[in-house]
Every structure is written in structure tokens, then in C-alpha cells.
Amino acid sequence: MLADRRVLVVLDNAATVGQVRPLLPGSAHGLVLVTSRSRLSGLAVRDGARRLTLGVLPEPEAVALLRVVTAGYRPVDDERQLAELARLCARLPLALRIAAERAASHPHLRLDDLIADLRDESALWDALSTGDDEEAEAVRTVFAWSYRALSEQAARLFRLLGLHPGPEFGLRAAAALAGSTSISRSRQLLDSLVGAHLLEQTAPDRYQFHDLLRAYAIDQAQHEEPPVEREAALRRVLEWYLHTADAAQGWINPAEDRVPLTPAPDDVSPLTFSEYDAAVDWAEREHANLLQSVRTAADAGHDRLAWQLATVLWNAQFPSASGTSWPAVGRIGLEAAERLDERAAQGALHTYLGMAYTRLNCLAESLESHENALAIRRDLGDRLGEARSLNLIGLNHLRARRLDPAARYFEQAISAFQEQDAAHWAATALSNLATTHYRAGRLPEAATVIDQALAAHRTLGDQRGEGNILRVLSDVQRERGDVEASLVSAQAALDIALGLRNLRLEGFWLLTLGDAQQAKGEYAEALTSYQRSATLHRRLADRSREALAWQGVGEVYRQLGRHAEAVDFHRQAASTHRDLGDEWHQALALDGTASALLGESPDEARRHWTEALRFLAAFDDPRAVAVRETIERGLTETS
């Protein structure tokens, strides 16, 4: 969007070079301004950045800031005294604003007295940093000055907020930390912290720390809160996140097993939700805090809370969470469950890790996790859990296009689910079996299973399952020549994904809609679908499906006679599939490349076809045989 525009991009408070590089413009027309507390030397070495070291505010500007904040609240203060106050604040904007707010809130106190108060606090908060950094000392002094002016209850809440897993939090999480059942009182105390510039309010009932102030709050908690009080506050807020996430799971993933939880403590009031959207909104807003809660629980030695939080979080993730965020905390939860020898919890976490690895196209790691889960569930005599593992192992084989093993695992899973009267999971496995038949090119078998699965999902009211099987139905209808019906089915599936606010499903099912649009000759619409799919899958870190979207774009450009552009997209898809070790889709991308090159460079086209045949040799299903025959015919006709 920005490639041909003259744009200034501002990247504020970057932590690492890795955060910056993906956002650098690809042309010389744009300028990027990065602010950071780190030197980010790699940007200067590799990316041609010019480093500007910013000092503190010049004295006139520091004094001007003090005057602006205190204007209208105090008599006009002496310029020399304001300069002295600015010096004590090291002329740092944050410290200056806090000091100015203190001065504005005491209009009848002489500035000399405020300066004396500030100097008296100079011994506080020494533990926050090492060395003799005068600026850090000055900021610590200002923080302490503001903190000592708080009421006892507000100061206690400020300290306890330093124990919160993340720098940003809501009103009710703060109340859980404080052990308060009075939401209105908690709001009053938070408002007083905002008024003292010790917190920032970011939205109604939503607050965040400046990172330096959070460090100060943590330090105060370590020094002023007894260990037993710190321990109790941390447990309360972790329990609050656990029980609220469990309530969210009931809407976001109702078919998944719930973790057996003891009732929430009396001084913890978790949220409940009245609708799907409210649960998703909360899960999206609190995602970073939930991830950090798992780490915090494990670091504090609360192993049971750690594995419970990790397990519930998998099922309470907002539907479009990036595939990269959960596996790290999933492993932390698994290690905690192993320390407690909680075998059922280990089985669940192996299962969810396997699913997470599949989303990241780490199929070997996924298979290992599912096989570990299967072994545990068989050891425990958990027949339903065993069936779920069989289904998920089948999905792993399906993703790797090992279609015969995939079908066998799905058939075993369907039988086991039916034995357990698990109608939802039996319908899910039926859908997976239908997908397997379709990908193998066995359309009659796929159509039979589709009818069974679609009826089952609709009887159960399972929208997600219905959308998924509609996707497969659309593919079968398209290949049988019923393009209008294919479009209707694909659009119905996409509407379900949009209603569920699930970007992962939307991105995947857009591929099917693009295929149907392309088959009908709606090329502009197909390009829009494929490009939206590619964008979503890049955001979700699913490189495989992103490459499938580029393959679709290449096919459309070839249909339009724009062969050079088609070649570019096919090659991009082939390169990604090669990186992922996906020989089937690499072969299809090479076939697309060859078809686009045929008119201009028949020799190069034949080389691509020959390479594609080498990859296709490993597959013997009807669809693979048909693709091979088509390529061989192309080679014969051009030789």
C-alpha cells in the first residue's frame, strides 16, 4: 500500500531490531523514524540508519513544560526555582510531568518547600538500578515523591499492581490483586493513581504502567509488602485469569473438555459472559496477559496453576490469535504437569502442542506430540481421548498428503467416537475423511461422506463444523462442473467464518471461494479473495496456506494472459513449498510455472515439468495420477 507513496513511518519505543525490519519500506520514497531505549546497532550496520542520540529537554523547554502543566493552578513561580525543579527531575519529560502535577495539586505550598520535599526523597528506591546514573536517580526521586503523597490504600494498590503479569490491565484484575470485592472503590483508587500520573488510563476501566513506573511498583512491593501478602495477591490475580478464561472457553470452544477447577476463592470474582462476542472481546484484550500469567505462575512455583492456565488458554484463545504465541507457554505448562505427574494434563497439553505445531507447519513435531498424547491416553484407558488423538494424527497425515494413512486413522477415530456417543467429534472426523477423499480425487466417496457430515453438523448446530464441510462440498461441486452451487457453498462457509470472527477460518475458506470465482470467470473477485487470504495467513504465520493463495493468484493471471506476473506468483509459491518440504504443492506450483512459461520459453517450461514429475513420483492416488498424465502429455506435445 505504501510502496509508491512518500510516507513518514514512526515506530515508537522499539525493543529490538527484529521489531523494526519487517516494517521498513521497500522503496526510497519513505522515511522511518524509530525511537528506542536501545542503540539498535544492527539498523545502522545493515540498514543504513542514521543514529541520533537524544538528550534530555533543554532547560528552557523543561521550564516551559512545568509552566504549561501548572498554568492556572498556581501563582507564577520564579524562573530560577522552576529551573532547580527541572534539574532535580533531570529534565526528563516523564519526571517533569509528575513533578508539575504535584506542584499543581498543592497551589498554596511554596515551590521551595516542594523542592525540599523532592530532595528528601533522594535516598528512596535505590534498589531499582545499579551505578551512579544521575538521570535514573532523579527519576526515582520524583516517583518516590509522588508515591509518598498517596493514601495508604492507593499506595498499597500501586505496589500490588507491580505484581500483575503484564503492564496493562483491567479494573477487575486490579480488584483481584487487591482482594477487593468493591469494584467502585477499586475504580476510585485507580483514578487517584491516574491523577498522580503513576498510571495511564487507556480506555474505560483499562489502565497501563509506564515501564519505569512498573519497575518502581515492583520494587516497592518487594520492600513494603510482606511475602505472604505478595503471594496471596499473585495467587488471586492468577485465579481470576484462570476462572475468567474458563468462562470464555464455554463460548469460544464449547466442545473442548473443560479443566476441572476448584471454585474461585471468596475474594476473587471472575467474569462471566452472556454471549460469544463478549467472550471473544475479553480473550483478545487479555491475550498477552494470559500468556504471561502462565510464565508468572511457573516462575512463582505454582505448577498446578501453570498447567491449568496453559490448557485453558489454548481453548480460550481469541479465534484469530497468531499461531506463534501459544506453543512456548504450552511447553511451560507441560513441564509443570510433568513435575506434578499429572498424566491427564500431560495428554491434553501434548494434544494442544500437536495442534499448534500443525498450524506452524512443523509436522514432525506435531506428529511426535500427538503420538505422545495417544500413548498417555491409552495408558490411562481414556477411550475418548484416544479417539481424539487418532483423529489428530490423521490430520497430520492429511496435511502432509499421506492420504491412505490419513483415511485409516479417520476411520478408526469415527468408529471410536461413535462407540463413545461423541456425536460432535464423530462429525468432525467424518469431515476430515471427506477432505481426504476429495484430495485423493475420489469424488463419489467424498460426496457420500459430505452428506453425512453436513447433516450431522447441522443437527448439532455446529457452525464451525458446517462451514468446514461446506468448504469441501464447494470443491466437489466445482470439480463436477456445478460452479454456481460451488460459489453458493463457498460463500456460505465464508459467512460463517465472518460471524465467528475467526480469521484463520476466513483465510482458509477464502481459498475455496477464490477457486469457485476463478472457475466462473470472476477473475477480479478471485484475486481479491486470494490476496485477502494471503494477507491473513501471513498475519497468522501460516506460510503453507499463504503460498496456496499466491498459487491461486498465479492461476488467475495465467487465465488473464498476464504470463509474466503468473510466473512470479507461481515461483513464489514453489519457493515457499520447497522451504516447507511440501513436495506435492511444490509440484503443482512448478506445473503452474511451466504452463505460464510455455509460450515464451518452452525449454524452461519442460524443465519445470520434468522437476514436477520427479516430486509427483511419490504419490499414487487418482488425483496425483491425473496430474502426472497431464504433465506428461504437455511434455510430449512440446517435444
UniProtKB/TrEMBL annotation:
The keyword rRNA processing does not apply. SUPFAM superfamilies: P-loop containing nucleoside triphosphate hydrolases, TPR-like. Keywords: TPR repeat. InterPro entries: P-loop_NTPase (IPR027417), TPR-like_helical_dom_sf (IPR011990), TPR_rpt (IPR019734). TPR repeats lie at residues 547-580. The keyword Ion transport does not apply. PANTHER family: RAPSYN-RELATED, TETRATRICOPEPTIDE REPEAT PROTEIN 28-LIKE PROTEIN. This is Tetratricopeptide repeat protein. It comes from Streptomyces javensis. The lineage of its organism: Bacteria, Bacillati, Actinomycetota, Actinomycetes, Kitasatosporales.
